[in-house]
Amino acid sequence: MNKNQANNFTALWVKYSEYEIVEEKKVKYIKPTENAQYEVYDPFEIADEILVDILNIGKLVGEDKDVDKSILEFVNKYGLMGELTYLPLNNNLVYQKKVFLPKKNPITTKDVLPIEEYLEKFLVCDKKHRIQIFASKDKNGPIGISNNNEITANLFLNRGIEYNVVFSKGYSEQIQWIIEYAKYLYLIFADIEIYYQQDNDELKSALNMLIKTFKVSNLTCKIEMLEKASLVWDFNSLKQAIDTMLLLNETNERKTAKMCKHCGKAFSSQNIKAEYCSPQCRNQANVYKSRAKSKESEEQ
């Protein structure tokens, strides 16, 4: 996926060098390891790689495969999703002291949570209390978030104070959240592929209704005066960036992340005519086509 030359993307994200799976009250989480070091990178520089990897995890989920190892590998390569900043419908969470959430979200059945309660859902594994949340001396002021015993990447990225949590070693996300997201993402990806292969108008209409449910929420952009006036997109999370990657890919005439017409696996190719993820799948598809033609000839 090539960045549209007419636009610029601000998509810097933080990943740690190593993550681990931990279990708390029979729930699996992913968090940075104790000695991990952070780095800042631009997900759009490797957009195809990220998109293909998360889509193939979704495919495995749909096949009822165990994907814990695959998800850990994904997070080790690209970092956690940033669910904390992805989900809220409002901005400036810390200053508003409450979080407004979509009715269907993976972490709670409530529509509104106090900011302290919301943040704690992502600090379940923070045994060293790297992040401390405390009330402001001013009752009307924002809550405080202390990370005095850890320097986070947010000091360099200069984002909202909630990113002190997201970019902390104390931050964690449930594996199940990533599982459900990957499954849904692949479902949309596959339905778009299937849509263009269908002649049945009723089925196409049903697919279209499902595809329309996918959208990038809370995406903001602004004009910055760089070498020329440029449209800059400001992504609140890796998850929001991935949403955008899928939308850009599926609406591009030269889409580079594709679905193999034989096995259904996602793969990346700059060749606009590529239809198969490997020579093996291409050969196997040709064998099936040949057998189908032979059977059709025999029946005639």
Low-confidence stretches: none
**Overall body shape:** globular
- Portion of residues in beta strands equals 15-25%
| Rg on CA atoms, Å | 22 Å
The biggest sheet, with number of strands, parallel, antiparallel or mixed sense and barrel status, is: 3 strands, mixed
Number of helices: 11
User: Structural class of the helix and strand makeup?
Assistant: alpha+beta
Give a count of the beta strands, DSSP E runs of length 2 or more: 14
Word description of this protein:
The protein has 300 residues and is of the alpha+beta class. The chain is 38% helix and 19% strand. The protein contains eleven helices and 14 strands. The strands form six sheets. Strands 1-12-11 form a three-stranded mixed β-sheet, with no helix packed on it. A hairpin with a 3-residue loop joins strand 11 (220-225) and strand 12 (229-234). Helix 1 (47-62) crosses helix 8 (175-195). The relative contact order is 0.16. The model has no long low-confidence stretch (mean pLDDT 86).
Gist?
The chain has helices spanning 47-62, 68-78, 83-86, 93-96, 115-120, 154-157, 163-166, 175-195, 201-211, 238-250, 279-299; strands at residues 7-10, 13-16, 19-24, 27-32, 38-41, 98-100, 112-114, 132-134, 144-146, 173-174, 220-225, 229-234, 257-259, 266-268.
